[in-house]
Specification:
The chain has 325 residues and is an alpha/beta fold. The protein has a domain at 4-208: TIM Barrel (Alpha-Beta Barrel), CATH 3.20.20. 42% of the residues lie in helices and 14% in strands. It has 14 helices and ten strands. The chain has helices at 4-9, 26-34, 49-62, 82-91, 108-113, 125-133, 157-167, 181-189, 199-202, 211-219, 242-254, 264-267, 271-276, 300-324; strands at residues 15-17, 39-42, 67-73, 96-101, 117-122, 138-142, 172-175, 195-197, 225-228, 236-239. The strands form two sheets. Strands 1-8-7-6-5-4-3-2 form an eight-stranded parallel beta sheet. Strands 9-10 form a two-stranded antiparallel sheet. Strand 3 (67-73), helix 4 and strand 4 (96-101) form a beta-alpha-beta unit. It starts with a helix and ends with a helix.
Length: 325
């Protein structure tokens, strides 16, 4: 399948793996890229630029296909040494970077001069237009269904994607609620040029997370996620667990007086315990509503091959059948 996204990034299939904290390691990114998609190493999961350098080199040993890096830009008071992270990206010949969080404009010239294509994560059309205006090559449009941070507008992809298609000139992928061939074909129909999958890729053989995490996703329904940190305007969609119930209780009790320090124990530094050790109640962890569509743990190649085969069937059999009838 050829779209503006496959052409932009030099990949076979219009499927991108989202950058996920303590999930986007070399093993998963290389598996996605090797299967024809675009895998992403999560830059800030690597504690130092030197660690990122090693992780990119590891991925390059596992596949000769393009592997990207996710770089999330945090508020200034917690900012990592971004120039040094970008040094590692450029030195290793990475050709695709997914930016997220704060406006990446000040860092774009260096990366674009190095021939890197930038795709920025956005949760609204206005932010996508800003990304286009500052020179991003593509955007990932994240609907309200997505795991992690869906923004504050609460617009689902059935509305957000056609709106993005109406306004944008650059290519974009759909993110949030993406799990299978139906997701891909629907997103293409609404104007997207591909899809970005996060939660779905956690439930694969190559995802370097504890089996408890994969089992939790497979067991979950579409009703098993919830939103936390809404009062702080830092909304995050997470899997329900004991820690999340505690957060919701504190949020209700504190009301407008809620401070991040009130829930810091449940949200800060919890990912190693969850993803590496399998302690599913250690804290809040990002998970999309799409968990309700995930029923198995295939290899990455099996998953991508299945999506593309079934997408072909949907387009050439089911949809074409309506026209022929």
């Amino acid at each position: 399948m050829k779209t503006r996204i496959t052409e932009l990034f030099g990949i076979e299939h219009p499927i991108i793996q989202g950058g996920m904290h303590y999930v986007g390691f070399a093993e998963l990114a290389a598996a996605v890229s090797g299967a024809g998609g675009l895998g992403m190493i999560t830059g800030l999961t690597q504690k130092t630029p030197e660690d990122l350098d090693k992780e990119i080199k590891k991925a390059k040993e596992l596949t000769d296909k393009p592997v990207g890096v996710n770089l999330t830009f945090l508020p200034a008071f917690t900012a990592p040494p971004y120039p040094e992270y970008i040094d590692a990206i450029i030195a290793n010949g990475v050709t695709a970077v997914e930016t997220a969080g704060r406006n990446p404009e000040e860092h774009l010239p260096r990366m674009k001069e190095a021939g890197i294509k930038i795709i920025h994560k956005c949760t609204s059309v206005r932010h996508a237009l800003k990304a286009q205006a500052i020179g991003c090559d593509a955007v990932s449009v994240d609907g309200f269904e997505c795991g992690g941070h869906p923004g504050e507008d609460d617009i689902p992809n059935m509305i957000l994607l056609p709106r993005a298609a109406d306004e944008l000139d650059i290519p974009f992928v759909a993110s949030g609620g993406q799990a299978d061939a139906r997701s891909l074909v629907a997103s293409l129909a609404m104007g997207a040029d591909g899809m970005n999958m996060g939660t779905r890729f956690i439930a694969t053989k190559e995802a370097p997370v504890h089996q408890n995490v994969k089992d939790a996703i497979v067991a979950a329904s579409e009703l098993d996620t919830t939103l936390v940190m809404r009062p702080l305007r830092n909304t995050e969609r997470v899997m329900k667990n004991e820690a999340v119930e505690e957060i919701l209780k504190i949020e209700k009790e504190k009301g407008d007086d809620l401070q991040i320090t009130d829930i810091l124990q449940q949200v800060a530094g919890v990912y190693p315990s969850i993803m590496m050790e399998g302690d599913m109640d250690a804290g809040a962890w990002s998970c999309g509503m799409v968990a309700g569509l995930i029923n198995d743990v295939p290899t990455v190649k099996e998953l991508i091959d299945r999506i593309m085969s079934e997408a072909d069937d949907i387009i050439n059999a089911r949809l074409k059948g309506f026209l022929d009838a």
